[in-house]
Amino acid sequence: MDIKTIEGAVSGLGLRVLGGFHGDVPKEPRTIILIGNAGPEMWAAFARATTLGGRTNDADPLDTWTRRGVSEAAESLGARALFPFDGPPFHPFQQWAVRTGQAFASPTGPLIHPIFGLWHAYRGALAFEDRLDLPPPPAANQGDSPCLACVEKPCLKACPADAFRPDYDVAACVAHIGSSDGGPCFTGGCLARRACPVGGQYVYEEPQANFHMVRFLKAQGHV
Fold it and tell me: Is residue 130 helix, strand or coil?
């Protein structure tokens, strides 16, 4: 089994390999490969496979679609599918992402990728009992967060709710998005996220950004 074969199994879903690591304790699989999205490709595949009504009204349409597609890929590869939305207990996807060496903490909270910036997400993982060769790190990855070299930190200045002070103020963020001034954030996604200079070519298009924003507001009990 190699990374190219794994990529081929998930590419039809608009997903990609976002790093991996070797298990170092007896209860862990020998290799875990993280699967996720970057940019708009996943949304295009998801939109083709679903209806507008389903995306709007179903409880968890993206999770349902992801589970079906990644589970089928896992079966074809002889792997076990793991998902961030299964639980409790929940799999530590954020910790796993850091273990790959391809994701780092950012000032706004979400992990940042040296190529995709803040425009990526972990949709699942494939657990293999064999020790596989891991995907090479991105060429732009020098082993440190790209945020360390960013002096201006435009992400912290772009938030109209001043929600990073310094810890993330969820209530202030939600209140602004739901206000009459929150239209740009609601339709196009987080302005602080959009201000990040890394990965600008992978910015989510408006339908995808709005879908995630609506889900965020629902999770906060605001919709």
Answer: coil
Total domains, the chain: 1
What domain range is 111 assigned to?
3-219
- CA-wise closest residue to 158 among 198, 190, 181, 112: 190
The arrangement of strands across the sheet holding 31-38 comes to 16-22, 31-38, 120-128, 80-82
What count of residues does the chain have? 223
Instruction: Please give the radius of gyration of the chain, using alpha carbons only, rounded to the nearest integer.
Output: 18
75: helix, strand or coil: helix
Could you read off the pLDDT of 157-199 as tens digits, one per residue?
999 999 988 889 999 999 999 999 999 999 999 999 999 999 9
User: Alpha carbon of 5 to those of 23, 28, 139, 173: distances in Å?
Assistant: 21, 22, 21, 41
75: CB partners within 8 A, 6+ apart: none
Q: What pTM was computed for the model?
A: 0.92
Give the bridge partners for 21, in sequence order: 32
Residues 6+ apart with CB under 8 A from 145: 104, 105, 106, 112
